[in-house]
């Protein structure tokens, strides 16, 4: 039969609570990531909307790479 001191009991309980918090934090993170994860179609819609917004911005504001990409996509549509 083991006899625990009050300090040993407190340390054991605090350790178990610490481990539970770690598990709950991980599970909560996975649940949040699953619930906020966009579907493929909503992501593509967002990207199309951002592309339309970039086409409205004047060319003088774009950097060289984005300007090349925008003009190459205009050439593909013609």
What is this structure's SSE topology?
Blueprint: H1 6-36, H2 40-56, H3 64-77
Please tag this protein with its features.
mainly alpha, 78 residues, Bestrophin homolog, 2 domains, 3 helices
How would you describe this structure to a colleague?
The chain is mainly alpha-helical. The protein has 2 domains: 1-37; 38-78, no CATH class. It is 79% helix and 0% strand. The protein is built from 3 helices and no strands. It has helices at residues 6-36, 40-56, 64-77. The longest helix has 31 residues, at 6-36. It is rod-shaped and about 80 Å long. This is Bestrophin homolog.
In short:
This is Bestrophin homolog. It contains three helices and no strands.
Fraction of residues in β-strands: under 5%
| Gyration radius from CA atoms, angstroms | 27 Å
The dominant shape is: rod-shaped
What's the story with the biggest beta sheet?
none
Q: Mean pLDDT across all residues, rounded?
A: 82
**Percentage of helical residues?**
over 70%
Tally of individual domains? 2
In total, how many beta strands? 0
Q: Note the gap between the termini.
A: 86 Å
Q: Spell out the helices and strands N to C.
A: HHH
Number of helices: 3
Q: What structural category characterises the helix and strand content?
A: mainly alpha
Low-confidence stretches: none
Organism: Angiostrongylus cantonensis
Protein name: Bestrophin homolog
